[in-house]
Amino acid sequence: MQKQEFLKKVSVKGQDYHILDINLLEKKGIADINRLPFSIRILVENLLRKLDNYIVREQDLINIAKWQKSYDTPIEIPHHPARVLMQDFTGVPAVVDLAAMRDAVKTLGGDPKKINPLIPVELVIDHSVQVDYFGTSDSLDKNVAKEYERNSERYKFLKWAQKSFDNFKVVPPNSGICHQVNLEYLGRVIITSEMDGRMMAFPDSLVGTDSHTTMINGIGVMGWGVGGIEAEAVMLGQPYFMSIPEVIGVKMTGSLKPGITATDLVLTVTQILREQNVVEKFVEFFGPGMKNLPIPYRATIANMSPEYGATMGFFPVDEKTIEYLNMTNRSEQAEIVDIFARELNLYYTGEHDPEYTQVLELDLDSIVPSLAGPARPQDRIVLHQLENHFAEILECSHERDADIEHISQFLDESGCVSSRAICCEPRGRRHCIAHINGKEVSIGDGSIVIAAITSCTNTSNPYVLIGAGLLAKKAVEKGLKIPLHVKTSLAPGSRVVQKYLEDAGLMPYFEALGFHIAGFGCTTCIGNSGPLHPQIEQLIKDHDLTVASILSGNRNFEARIHQSIKGNFLGSPILVVGFAIAGRIDVNLVKRPLGTDPNGEPVYLEDIWPKNKEIEALVNKHVKKEFYKNVYAEIFDGDKLWQNLEVAETTTYDWDETSTYIRNPPYFDNFSLDIKKQSNISSARALLLMGDSVTTDHISPAGAIPEDYPAGNYLTGKDVKTKDFNSYGSRRGNHEVMMRGTFGNIRIKNQLVKNKEGSFTLKFPENKEMYIYNAAAEYRNHGVPLIVLGGREYGTGSSRDWAAKGTTLLGIKAVIVESYERIHRSNLVGMGVLPLQFKEGESWETLGLDGYENYTITGIENMKPRNELEVKAEKKDGTQISFKVVSRLNSDIEVEYFENGGILPYVLRKIMKND
After folding, report:
1. Of 758, 757, 754, the residue nearest 767 (C-alpha)
2. How confident is the model at residue 418, as a pLDDT?
3. CA-based nearest residue to 635, from 181, 71, 47, 113
4. Any idea where the Aconitase/3-isopropylmalate dehydratase large subunit alpha/beta/alpha domain is (predicted)?
5. Whole-number pLDDT of residue 410
6. DSSP string of 859-877?
7. Looking at residue 841, what is its pLDDT?
8. Residue 794 carries which DSSP code?
9. How far apart are CA 231 and CA 588, in angstroms?
């Protein structure tokens, strides 16, 4: 079979284009294309276009073209994404690795310019802005200035990369978030490019270094998050090897009721699909209900694919896609997409539905107002049940007491209310007095201290943002205000949002409530919420208050939003404004008032909730094509701060040995082109013993750097003042900081040190309690290999490559758990760490392990995909526990990566071999 057999010419306005027509596979009797899910059809086209009978073999093409609903044994295919999307937190270490590879090639006598992206790479600097300033008209300018003050060294490095690497573009800071910029501008849907002397048209596809890359699935583009190391391999021309996925179809019927938001819908979808266990599967939406959803709603659902565990949540191209491309100033592209999506059989008309592994039905009429919390996005709470739900969090079974107007009468000696007299046993609620800006403010269990309309999930959706603005307008007109203890912020995902909110006259009302624009970037959703008022933080710490945040993001994991906040709740931007006004999370806003107007009259949420017709009228009038045209015409130019960064254009990077931000990583130290055979693991020790749902936020360094933790000690030793520590995310280019912060979350629960949270472990055989990094360093000095034991859903959350990089740098050779999240497992493989899985029904608990044992793992020397290995755990008294584990090296190429010590050594050896 030759791909030339499938070439088809299509003329558009006098221009000839060629496609690889997958429909000819059906005409030739090879496969029934019309039965395939649309996402699988895109993979078929990809393999047909890349067919060379070397990397992509004829059998690979046949395997995907004859897709089956399920597979007893995984079948691997090589996928070639058309481009790579990065954000700066994950992008910086990836670019650092590329720079290090150039050094390695130079050392080996090769041409360092061969290390260069071979496909388009777009990096959006969006994860570094922090909400240090809020509630004033100059908050944005001050936060951006602070961002450059903290990160100019990193930004100079990225600007160097833009000058020094081909196929590499950078969207400067203060522009927006990568997912929304991708959705509104970078996404092509159909790419036209010259190949082999022909102008080709083919489906857009990508991988991204952020797990929420899936937002682009909302316009029919195949894309998902991968680790930075996998992205680097794709940039360097390697295929992305993947198992042919199962595809779960979600048939949508009906339409959303008035007042129901896209956020209510996505939280329901997240809960349902997480319960259905769609991990490592594609989810594809279809049906008449889907036809009722505009692109911003689809993008919201697609964005949260990682939260419901799917590789992606895909919406095929249809008329709504074309409308959206036209609205976002891509009319010429819209015409191309309309023509070629139909030619390639990728356009969903609704007349015929594909086959799916399983079909779930979702009636949109059933969706009700919802939030999610306090620590997992899949834990949906119906709005009117939130009050009782929070009571259960505090182990308090009855409804909360009436609002305390004269709190001083209940004060105890500590300055806090002893609420045992007014609440219930065993955990009474506490209320404390803080003095903010000269005023006495009461806070306590249930108080909201952060209310953030943050980017990523919702700010690409004009309906919920204009809805939030309308609610703010009605609230201001009622004389409502937001309590002083609530830190408010608005962080849009693109500058287009500011344009249409201003055009609709809604920004003054946002600002009247303190929701001034604080930045164009990720902010609160990744922990860049900035500091709380010092007195509030002290009261929370001193009295163990369970305070809350309300945000319109997609992640609310423990200690993610702010390390002092235990209860984090996801909701629509409209509800964020509503709860900010209420000032508490433990209130039933369906029955109880938000507050009172100046005349003492109660104001209820329903009194100020915007009508659908009001929202739609403003969206239709004020979300204008010209805004997209003007904003994206200068998206790569940057502000004056970016333009004033001076960098040299060189082939290799001039590393600064004194830098605490950018360091040459040790991955290629003493690198040899010869592969050292992997051996069995003997006499290993458990560094951590973990439970279920350990997230990449627990593993990877994220958020603030504690002064007394190893990373803080390192920076202090480099004469960095505590106020200049910045965040772990901003220092991802420095492996010395990051390895010290791995497993450094202050809320991590290592069962080796029971009843204690934080980055601690026991060092054996002394049974000495130490910081995890310090124990790992001592083990390394004594040549002791390490393992990690865990439970179910290990590695859920963001695609943090440092969760894997830090793991390997600590000396961890293998991880043994009950199940993995897709991206983290892949990242472990990419860094040469062996992912192992307990047999079904077994766990470290059922096997009687306690982490004190010596571990030996055999079978590694003859590794094959998914083969069984034997583990022997020897206890102190000499008794042994033997058990089998399954290697989660899922394919031949993953075995090769592991034997090479990871993806990067594999790619480097391949490049040098072909030099």
Report:
1. 754
2. 33
3. 181
4. 76-583
5. 31
6. -GGG--TT-EEEEEEE-TT
7. 96
8. B
9. 45
Strands 487-490 and 312-314: unpaired
**Sign of the C-alpha dihedral computed for residues 245, 246, 252 and 258 taken in this order:** negative
Q: How far apart are CA 540 and CA 536, in angstroms?
A: 6
pLDDT given for residue 768 in this prediction: 96
* Integer Cα distance of 167 and 144 in angstroms: 27
Does 618 lie in the same domain as 711?
no
Distance of alpha carbon 181 from alpha carbon 184, whole angstroms:
5
Strand ordering across the sheet containing 416-418: 416-418, 430-436, 439-444
Tokens of 447: 């108080």
CA distance 670 to 442: 60
In this structure, what are the phi and psi dihedrals at residue 595, rounded to the nearest 5 degrees? 175, -165
Q: Are residues 289 and 438 in the same domain?
A: no
Cα–Cα distance measured from residue 805 to residue 795, given in angstroms and rounded to the nearest whole number = 13
Residue 359: which of 309, 298, 285, 305 has the closest Cα?
A: 285
Residue 5 DSSP SS3: helix
Among 218, 258, 268, 225, CA closest to 94: 225
CATH code of 276's domain:
3.40.1060.10
By the 8 A CB rule, do 653 and 157 touch? yes
Q: Are strands 358-363 and 416-418 parallel, antiparallel or unpaired?
A: unpaired
User: How wide is the angle at C-alpha 841 spanned by C-alphas 840 and 843, nearest 5°?
Assistant: 100
Collect all residues with Cβ–Cβ distance below 8 Å to 743 and sequence separation of at least 6.
687, 688, 698, 699, 750, 759, 772, 806, 810
Element (H, E) at 108: none
In this structure, what are the phi and psi dihedrals at residue 89, rounded to the nearest 5 degrees? -60, -45
Note the residue count of the chain: 915
Output the domain CATH number for residue 887.
3.20.19.10
Say how many C-beta atoms besides its own lie within 10 A of residue 676's C-beta: 9
- Please check whether residue 849 lies inside any domain of the structure: yes
Give me the number of domains the chain comprises. 4
Q: Which domain holds residue 24?
A: 3-29+37-65
Question: Do 445 and 566 fall into the same domain?
Answer: yes
Tokens of 672: 């040899």
Cis before 112 (ω within 30) = no
Q: List, in order, residues 6 or more apart from 719 with CB less than 8 Å away.
A: none
Query: Residues 6 or more apart from 175 whose CB is under 8 A from it?
Result: 124, 125, 126, 181, 494, 495, 520, 635, 638
Q: What is the Cα–Cα distance from 820 to 86, expressed in whole angstroms?
A: 23
Looking at the domain assignment, is residue 160 inside a domain? Answer: no
Query: Position of tokens 């936020």?
Result: 697
Q: Identify the pLDDT of residue 422.
A: 30
Do 834 and 815 share a structural domain?
A: yes
Q: Do 313 and 276 sit in the same domain of this protein? A: yes
pLDDT of residue 409: 33
Specify the residue for token string 């849009």.
492
Assigned domain for 810 exists: yes
Task: Give the chain's end-to-end CA distance (angstroms, integer).
Answer: 30
Residue where a domain stops, chosen among 312, 341, 368: 368
337 shares its domain with 397: no
Whether 520 and 177 have beta carbons less than 8 Å apart is answered as yes
Contact 903, 233 (CB under 8 A): yes
Distance CA 393, CA 376 (A): 14
If asked whether residues 538 and 670 sit together in one domain, one would say no
Q: Per the domain annotation, does 298 fall within a domain?
A: yes
Q: Are residues 466 and 364 in the same domain?
A: no
At which of 623, 650, 683 does a domain end?
623
Residue type, 46: N
- Whether residue 24 contacts residue 11, with contact meaning beta carbons closer than 8 Å, is answered with no
The SS3 assignment for 709 reads coil
Low-confidence ranges of the chain (pLDDT < 50): 396-427
Q: Which amino acid is at 863?
A: M
pLDDT at 432: 86
Which residue, among 780, 706, 707, 716, has the nearest Cα to 748 in the 3D structure? Answer: 706
DSSP code for 183: I
Q: What is the CATH number of the domain that holds 514?
A: 3.30.499.10
